[in-house]
Amino acid sequence: MIPDRRPVIGVSLKLYFGLAETRKWLADVAALAGTAALGARAVDLFVLPAFPALADSRELLAGTGVAFGAQDVHWAESGPWTGEVSAGMLAEAGATYVEVGHAERRAHFGETDDTVRAKTRAATAAGLVPVVCAGERDGTDPGAAVEETLTQVRAALAGAVPGSEVIIAYEPVWAIGAADPAPADHVLTVAAAIRACLDEHDVRGRLIYGGTAGPGTYARLSTGPVDGLFLGRLAHDTEGLRRVLDEIAPVRTALNRSEPA
Predict the structure, then answer these.
(1) Are the beta carbons of 208 and 10 closer than 8 angstroms?
(2) Which InterPro entries does the record cross-reference, listed alphabetically (predicted)?
(3) Comparing C-alpha atoms, which of 125, 26, 19, 136 is closest to residue 73?
(4) How far apart are the first and last CA of the chain?
(5) CB 215 within 8 A of CB 240
(6) Among 100, 79, 75, residue whose Cα is nearest residue 87
């Protein structure tokens, strides 16, 4: 981890909650503002509910330091795109982040690298921070994983507005919903290649890991180039989210102490 880069944790609700259940979850997340990590502002936290809950997010998370965003965006600013939502509209709704190119979107909706590039361009042009998901489909060797993942990352970064902030969420597809996260050495190898790729582009890049991430995952990855975690169902129970947040402050403190003066 780069010492002056604050850890970041993201949570996607996908389509697991209804509106009332989302409101309750958001209220519970707001109550976490006094935890070790959030209370000390030792970590950036963002949440991605379904589109109809964006107004609720703006209301319930106001003043907590927790940011919110959306799980998808369209590449067009306006036009005859029935059912789609533009980056400009998300920004108007108070969103800061937007997820782009998740493996489920690629698998079920036919999204390609070109789609992700266009959506990244739209998001950064509107001042949003795209959370670009990238990762290999199969549990291949690290070299093959690097090659497949960097193809996706480079395509997305080609669409980013120069100087914009971009988060890359490294999510090996084979680890999404698995019993355990991908092995730390595998993640760190691919993450190092992603970090080098980010450094080659004119963006303010951050890197998080997703794929059955949970308590303990951050500690195993924090000495490398990974800046945080992208959480799924574990964080749908806010007790699981609290456990992840509370372990970040002491881990980060230990890392700071180990850095040369």
Answers:
(1) yes
(2) Aldolase_TIM, TIM_sf, Triosephosphate_isomerase
(3) 125
(4) 16
(5) yes
(6) 75
Phi, psi (rounded to 5 degrees) for 73? -155, 155
Domain ranges of the chain: 8-226
pLDDT, position 3: 42
Q: Which CATH class is domain 8-226?
A: alpha beta
Identity at 37, one-letter amino acid code: A
Split at pLDDT 50, 70, 90, the class of 1 is very low
Task: From 48, 55, 33, 42, select the one nearest 8 (Cα to Cα).
Answer: 42
**Rounded to whole angstroms, how far apart are CA atoms 239 and 257?**
28
> Three-class SS of residue 15?
coil
Give the type of residue at 215: P
Could you say which of 111, 136, 148, 171 is catalytic?
Answer: 171
Spatial CA neighbour of 154 closest among 165, 175, 137, 168: 168
Which residues, in sequence order, are bridge partners of residue 169?
133, 208
Residue 33 confidence (pLDDT): 84
Nearest to 135 by CA among 192, 188, 87, 174: 174
H or E element: which one contains 98?
A: strand 97-100
How many Å apart are CA 74 and CA 236, to the nearest integer?
Answer: 26
Which among 102, 111, 136, 247 is annotated as catalytic?
102
**pLDDT mean over 68-77:** 98
Largest Cα separation within the chain, whole Å, is: 57
Pairing of strands 228-231, 165-170: unpaired
For residue 256, what pLDDT is reported? Answer: 57
The residue-averaged pLDDT of 56-69 equals 96
Rounded Cα–Cα distance for residues 79 and 144 (Å): 40
Whether residue 84 lies in the annotated active site: no
Average pLDDT over residues 119-145: 95
Q: How far is the CA of 221 from the CAs of 22, 72, 186, in angstroms?
A: 30, 27, 10
Annotation says 171 is catalytic: yes
